Amino acid sequence: MSLGKAMIHARKQKSIARVAAAAHASEAVSPAHSNHILQMPVLVLNASYEPINICGARRALVLVLKGIARTEEEHGLTLHAQRSHVAMPSVIRLLEYRRIPHQTRALSRKNILLRDRNTCQYCGVVLPANELTLDHVIPRSRGGNSTWENLVACCHACNRRKGNRLLHELDDMNLMREPRAFSLHTSRQIMRMLGRGDDRWRKYLFY
Ligand SMILES: [Zn+2]
After folding, report:
1. 108 near 115, Cβ under 8 Å?
2. How many domains does the chain have?
3. Is there a contact between 151 and 159 (Cβ–Cβ < 8 Å)?
4. Within this chain, do residues 14 and 31 fall inside the same structural domain, yes or no?
5. Are residues 67 and 83 in the same domain?
6. What is the mean pLDDT of the chain?
7. Residues with Cβ within 5 Å of ion ligand 1?
8. Are 43 and 121 members of one domain?
9. 3-class SS of residue 113
10. C-alpha span between 3 and 90 (Å, rounded)
11. Is pLDDT at 26 greater than 60 in this prediction?
12. Which are the contacts of 201, defined by CB distance < 8 A and separation ≥ 6?
């Protein structure tokens, strides 16, 4: 089975996901805290040890339990689910090499917010995803398309202020930076930023 198919299969196979969902961390943490733990970022390495992605701990556990990836670095917490105990991963590595095309990221709200680091590209405020919207730099009503180059993360206040106008029609609104497609280079920058303070990640990210 190819890795792509295996991952789809893993997604469909809910039982392991349920185990991960029902799991709770030891170390006397509350269920709310264990939910937080299952959302913590895990660094994903290719079979070649090249860093390729970041996913949530819940998804990382599914990949490990399905035998698609193995844990390279543990987080230091153990999950108890039914009769099994699973060490929480901090870094996982795919067992089968996956060829990464240069621009693989799908154009989506999630990926635009990730590219823009949840930062309004007009005023610079950093907000949780659910408090941000996407702004068409050239409004749709004026022929703007939904593309990487024309969509940016935006707070609701700036979105209202900009309305249907073009940037040159506004004196006080400018983009913090030119919006570009999400490249592997962008992903690496984000991985490095997130991994700066984590020794378990650093050895894979700074070489
Ligand atoms: Zn703003």
Report:
1. no
2. 2
3. no
4. yes
5. yes
6. 82
7. 120, 122-123, 155, 158
8. no
9. helix
10. 21
11. no
12. 43, 73, 90, 91, 191, 194, 195
Centre of ligand 1 from the C-alpha of residue 126, in Å: 9
Residue 138 in any domain: the answer is: yes
Query: pLDDT value at position 175?
Result: 96
Distance, CA of 153 to CA of 115 (rounded, Å): 9
| 122 CA → ligand 1 middle, Å | 5
Ligand 1 centroid, distance to 197 Cα (angstroms):
28
167 CA distance to ligand 1 middle (Å): 14
User: pLDDT tens, 117-170?
Assistant: 899 999 999 999 999 999 999 999 999 999 999 999 999 999 999 999 999 999
Q: Which domain holds residue 144?
A: 109-169
Q: Is 174 within the bounds of a domain?
A: no
Distance between CA atoms of 207 and 205, rounded to whole angstroms? Answer: 6
Percent of the chain with pLDDT over 90: 45
How far is the CA of 117 from the CAs of 13, 44, 123, 151, in angstroms? Answer: 32, 19, 13, 14
**What CATH number did the domain enclosing 139 receive?**
1.10.30.50
